[in-house]
Amino acid sequence: TEKFVSSSAPLTIDIRPVPSAGQPASFSGAIGRFQVEVDANPKILRVGDPLSVTLTVRGEGLLETVHPPALEQQDRLAQDFKVQADPPAVKTDSDAKTFTYTLRPRRTGIREVSPIEMAYFDPDTQRFQVVRSTPVPLRVDATSTLPVSEVMDLSGESVKSVLGQELTEGILANYDGADLLVPQGFQIHPGLFTGLLLGLPP
Predict the structure, then answer these.
(1) Mind listing the pLDDT tens digit for each residue in 36-95?
(2) H runs (alpha helix) in 47-121
(3) Cβ atoms of 72 and 80 closer than 8 Å
(4) Which residues, other chains included, contact 25 with Cβ-Cβ below 8 Å and sequence gap of 6+?
């Protein structure tokens, strides 16, 4: 037997940067071919309540290069919702990457989370493609408000706040005094059974 060493011919690879010309505003590093799915929870809420919006990216390509789309830059969504400044929570699986955002509705009458747009660069066609999610139905009601009389005392010459005021009646009343304290004494009553428990080993 004889030992031989063989090597392949050199392979030339042309690595090109993602083009900046014609790059959509919703492009966030996705290279390949992807789809997006969106869900929201809860489906019924009030103005100003937090809304959890989950954006899931699936497809063919490197999920490591997919960064969270900037929802505050999507006009329709920004008109209806305030996007929290904190970065979204990120979860990466073998076939999907999930971003969870917190939004707050700005007004009543919002009936859906409008389609969220995400762009990706297809290396086969050397073109940018834009995909959009399907809208998620919602119902946004008016926020509950307290009457002025429950917040401010307008009976006197000066306006006073009634929040934090000591209450003397009803279930929210404040009670004080040493007679309200419940005795917490503890006493062992000796007996045959107690002696056996203390005397015998476990």
Answers:
(1) 999 999 999 999 999 999 999 999 998 999 999 999 999 999 999 999 888 999 999 988
(2) 75-80
(3) no
(4) 73, 119
Rounded CA Rg of the chain: 32
Three-state DSSP at 148 gives helix
Which pair of structure tokens corresponds to residue 4?
Answer: 């031989």
Q: Please report, in angstroms and rounded to a whole number, the separation of the first and last CA atoms in the chain.
A: 76
Output the six-digit token pair for 62.
């490197």
Using the structure block, give the residue that is written with the tokens 């006073």: 160
DSSP code per residue over 166-200: PP-SSTT-----GGGSPP--------HHHHHHHHS
Partner residues linked to 46 by β-bridges: 141
Task: Sort 59 into a burial class: Cβ within 10 Å, 0-12 / 13-18 / 19+.
Answer: middle
* One-letter identity of residue 72: E
Kindly report, residue by residue over 14-27, the tens digit of the pLDDT: 888 999 898 999 99
Respond yes or no on whether the N-terminal peptide bond of residue 123 is cis (omega within 30° of 0): no
Residue type, 82: K
Cα separations in angstroms, 52 against 58, 106, 123: 20, 15, 33
**Model confidence, pTM:** 0.66
Q: 117-131: per-residue pLDDT in tens? A: 999 999 999 999 999
* Contact (CB, 8 A) for 31 and 65: yes
